[in-house]
Amino acid sequence: MTAPQPVSEPMLGTDTPPVRLEVSDLRVHYPTGRGFVRAVDGISFSVDPGEYLGLVGESGCGKSTVVKAILQLLPTDTRVEGQILVDGEDLLSASADRVRALRWTKLALIAQSAMNALDPVYRIGEQIAESIHAHIDVSNEAARERARELFALVGIAPERLDDYPHQFSGGMRQRAVIAMALSLNAGLLLADEPTTALDPIMQDQVLGRLHRIHEALQRSMILVTHDMAVVAETCESIAVMYAGKIMETGPTRQLLAAPCHPYTMGLRNAFPTMKEDAPELISIPGTLPDLVDPPPGCRFASRCPFMTAKCEQIEPELVEVSPGHSVACHYADRAGELREQAARREVWVQVETRWESEGVSA
Ligand SMILES: Nc1ncnc2c1ncn2[C@@H]1O[C@H](COP(=O)(O)OP(=O)(O)OP(=O)(O)O)[C@@H](O)[C@H]1O
Ligand code: SF4
Ligand SMILES: [Mg+2]
């Protein structure tokens, strides 16, 4: 156990500097009976102090694994390589005590399921105060006051601190979990699908709050989601993952207005509200490759309408196409032309036909 840190400064506010995160060549391979699942396989990205980065990609592409690697919450037999620098300090070579100290103070998780994160038998205010007490040496009164401030910040009347979790709506519970994650002023928030379990109105409430927190406190954040529309509303930059790799990354507005990777083009089609001229939903046929034995070339090749023999043999590198915007596709220089084609349903139907002719159900 690390000793509690005395606190003399006011706890709420912009006094805790936002964290800079640099992830380099991160590999996370899980052992299974069939061999290692290469869930994350050589990814690099950074989050500047105060930046909100959206990490998107379909189910199973490795998003939660990235979050767990940063928080060091992976099973002990997992093979982890690379570097995770938090304000220049490498988490992967830090001691367990040091990592525990950094968790909560520099890194905080906003869990996906509020029901799991909150204990049903304790009042919510007590739980927030308890999490503060567990890490910082403050009086009961100061912890309670801190909990009141946090409730106000996430838009819940402080009188509701004495409620039990079941007395809250789903959106309120999720906002209470955000309050708990903010309780120690961590410089980097890791939010793994914080709104997935909520209906659209509650989703809006929670995302609106995250947005306001961003403006008020300027923390750094990684927001994990499979919903491009959520990232478009919340994050200034985006990293698109597919089968353990980053396929495209850059400023959200630019990347969504003019995606350069066929997978991002396909994801954009699947969220039609983001494209005024194509209200029709077009899904990407096929499924992720087997991560125990991924294909040698481009991992998206089996589902890509523009795949060539080169794509199947040579893996494309992530290359910068404009300042801050990088793409892993051999044909990124033809992105304008590919974008026009990718907007047409028949282009994706060809991929579906390919899957069907190979006897694999898309
Ligand atoms: N403990 C584990 N042991 C073996 N394989 C695992 C383990 N955890 C995750 N995986 C595998 O790693 C891959 C990535 O999983 P991960 O949970 O990171 O995906 P995700 O992008 O968060 O998906 P989702 O959107 O469904 O949450 C998947 O193939 C998954 O089956
Ligand atoms: S490298 Fe080839 S298969 Fe991969 S996304 Fe680009 S065009 Fe498609
Ligand atoms: Mg996940």
Description:
This protein folds into two domains: 17-235, 3-Layer(aba) Sandwich (Rossmann fold); 257-357, no CATH class. The termini are far apart. It is built from 13 helices and 14 strands. It has 362 residues and is an alpha/beta fold. The model is unreliable at 1-14 (pLDDT under 50). It is globular and about 65 Å long. β5 and β6 (89-90) form a beta hairpin. The protein has helices at residues 63-71, 96-105, 114-117, 124-135, 140-153, 170-182, 200-217, 228-234, 252-257, 262-270, 309-313, 335-342, 345-357, and strands at residues 5-6, 21-32, 35-47, 52-56, 79-86, 89-90, 107-110, 136-137, 188-192, 220-225, 237-242, 245-251, 319-322, 325-327.
Average pLDDT metric = 88
Look up the CATH topology of the largest domain. Rossmann fold
Shape: globular
CATH C-level category of the largest domain: Alpha Beta
